[in-house]
Amino acid sequence: MRTNSQLKGVFCLEGLLDLDLANGSTVQGILKLLQDNLDIPFFYKDFAVEGELFYYLKKWAQAKYDRWPILYLSTHGGEFEIWDSKTGHRLDEIAEHLAGKCENRMLVVSSCSTMAANKRLLKEFLKKTGFLGICGYKNDVGFLKAAAFELLLIAEMQSNEFSGRGVESIRKRSVAIAKDFKDLDFRMVTLQD
Q1: Is-above-0.85 flag for pTM?
Q2: What is the C-alpha to C-alpha distance for residues 105 and 75, in angstroms, rounded to an integer?
């Protein structure tokens, strides 16, 4: 077992997944499962109000949150964008807020179709922010199946260091795991591509 200082924590920002507040769909359960079974630390914040997403992104980019290098955005989305409750935010808008602040960090985007974007746009996003890689789905996904895959994905990210060579190994193994979840159409783009 790795020591707590070797584990890569998860900073999760979850958008309003259902306008019906009685629906309790949330990724908090998988974060708790990762913590309870693998000791992976996590922060969890939800966002629904305009401005909350960017407030939390700026907080996460601070050096004091380096222990949580996996940014996990769980929300609705579209090609090259994620949504808060009312507004779509293009990834290049997010890059403006995180420019140069994401070195040795990874972005997991749990939303429909965000990764259907042109590879050139995704690479530009990585270069501007400094993220080692971005991953998510190229089509519409179901919550339960995506959550199951993300549990395995985040666990797999613990296996290698967050470096050029390490992230390439994570990419290869994650793509292999994704073969059992074909309908998710998982994609990971790294700075090394």
Answers
A1: yes
A2: 20
Residues recorded for the chain: 193
**Residue span of the structural domain in which 63 resides:** 10-190
In angstroms, the CA 67 to CA 102 distance is 12
Q: Which residue has the tokens 């090394």?
A: 192
Query: Tell me, what CATH number does 178's domain have?
Result: 3.40.50.1460
d(CA 98, CA 54): 9
* pLDDT tens digits for range 116-126: 999 999 999 99
In a domain, 136, yes or no: yes
Contact criterion met (CB below 8 Å) for 138 and 185: yes
Q: Which residue has the tokens 């222990």?
A: 67
Q: What is the pLDDT of residue 16?
A: 79
Q: Classify residue 136 as left (phi > 0), alpha (psi -120 to 50) or beta.
A: left
